[in-house]
Design a protein that fits this description.
- There is one protein chain.
- By secondary structure, this protein is α/β, with parallel strands linked by helices.
- It has eight helices and nine strands.
- The chain folds into two domains: 151 residues, SPOUT methyltransferase, trefoil knot domain (Alpha/beta knot, 3-Layer(aba) Sandwich); 56 residues, tRNA(m1g37)methyltransferase, domain 2 (Trp Operon Repressor, Chain A).
- The strands form three sheets. It has a five-stranded parallel β-sheet with strand order 2-1-6-5-7. A two-stranded antiparallel ribbon has the order 3-4. It has a two-stranded antiparallel ribbon with strand order 8-9.
- Strand 8 and strand 9 form a beta hairpin.
- The protein is elongated.
Length: 226
């Protein structure tokens, strides 16, 4: 997979790709990530990428021209499956969306900033608008990092144990069950005996039941309405 990220703050975004799972994916050649500083696509001497809103109002808006130049250059070089805009009013990121995006070959992620982007950018170029929650950040960079992490970890070969991602919360519509490791007893608290007996069918049944109970208690909204 190739990910091209368009941003006014590339330095804010680079560190997540220099550590942990995403670095492993890049080092293995499974994913390539390219950062594009929007200021390099301006036509003015001040590298200005934003301007005041028509009609007045607080907050600056990212201009269409540098975004157009950047996206047009990238699209001239290859086909993109999705051009994603990170915005608080987009579709909320969930596991199903991450699963689908992990199957794509080339994607562009545009990071919003200030008051957002000129609406014509959204009308002309954007194929998917994504939010990581009902709150506002200073820019789309942190949201883009979250999106990329959610996608990249699902690509075959990235995780050491590929079945791990398949048992994460939300993959089957439920939260993950509780997990334990050594020691079996700690300060009087014991690991459930069923996990120590080696009867894997019973263990799986226990995990499914606990996942359901945990979901019902914490996120009942995920369960089908009766």
């Amino acid at each position: 997979m190739r990910i091209d990220i368009i941003t006014v703050l590339p330095e804010l975004l680079k560190s997540p790709f220099e550590a942990s799972i995403m670095k492993r994916a890049v080092d293995k050649g499974i994913v390539s990530v390219h950062f594009h500083n929007l200021r390099e696509y301006t036509s003015n001497n001040y590298k200005q990428v934003d301007d005041y809103q028509f009609g007045g109002g607080a907050g600056m808006v990212l201009m269409i021209e540098p975004i157009d130049k950047c996206i047009s250059k990238l699209r001239a070089e290859r086909h993109y499956d999705e051009i994603i805009y990170m915005t608080p009013d987009g579709e909320t990121l969930n596991q199903s969306m991450a699963n689908g995006l992990s199957l794509k070959k080339n994607i562009i992620v545009l990071c919003g900033h200030y008051k957002g982007v000129d609406q014509r950018v959204r009308d002309l170029f954007i194929t998917k608008e994504v939010s990581i929650g009902d709150y506002v950040l200073s820019g789309g960079e942190l949201g883009a990092a979250v999106l990329c992490d959610a996608i990249v970890r699902l690509i075959p070969g990235v995780l050491n144990n590929e079945t791990s991602a398949l048992t994460d919360s939300f993959q089957d519509g439920l939260l993950a069950p509780p997990v334990y490791t050594r020691p079996a007893t700690y300060k009087g608290m014991e690991v459930p005996k069923i996990l120590l007996g080696g009867n894997f069918p019973k263990i799986e049944a226990w995990r499914e039941q606990k996942a359901y109970e945990r979901t019902r208690e914490i996120r009942p909204d995920l369960l089908p309405e009766k």
